[in-house]
Amino acid sequence: MDIPVLVVIVILLLVVVLTIAIYNGLVQRRLRVDEAFAQIEVQLKRRHDLIPNLVNAVRGYMGFEQDVLTQVTEARAAAVAAGARGPAEQAQAENALTGALRSLFAVVENYPELRANQNVLELQEQLTTTENQISFSRQHYNASVLDYNTAIATFPSMLIAGPFAFTRREFFDAEPEAANVPRVDLSVG
Length: 189
Fold this sequence. Notes:
This protein has 189 residues and is mostly helical. Helices cover 75% and strands 0% of the residues. The protein has one domain (40-179): LemA-like domain (de novo design (two linked rop proteins), Up-down Bundle). Helix 1 (3-59) runs antiparallel to helix 2, helix 1 (3-59) packs antiparallel against helix 5 (118-153) and helix 2 (66-82) runs antiparallel to helix 3. The longest helix is centred in the first third of the chain and has 57 residues, at 3-59. It is rod-shaped. The model has no long low-confidence stretch (mean pLDDT 88).
């Protein structure tokens, strides 16, 4: 076999192997982004499931504060509905829900009997834990998106990403004021 032909075959084989390796790396990164987003969705579902229990627990004590409870309920419904519209809209709806929860917790502080209610205390603790888990999941997702977006935008993987339809992913952004976990001290005293 002629040496130049052998060199061409070796080069072609290297290009094929490199293309396969880059493609598989991009697929792995895309799957990590999908898995990280699924973790956010799990935590958001837990949050959405806790909120009706919290609203029901405080409703009897806060009869004349119905507008706050209505805001929380409507923000929860909007957040649930936004889940199908992508990370950007979902993040915006979740930020609105966080604001509504802050309003609720601020009003709860005005009711000593609520601060002493064990059910409300437990729900508040579960919600705080869930908020922390959402924050960690969001950080993991955004780190995965950064890694993936960087991979599809840099050479040589950008040569593979375009033809194989690897598209940029959106970050799950929190508004600066939403970065603080809604926290209220419901202890008696």
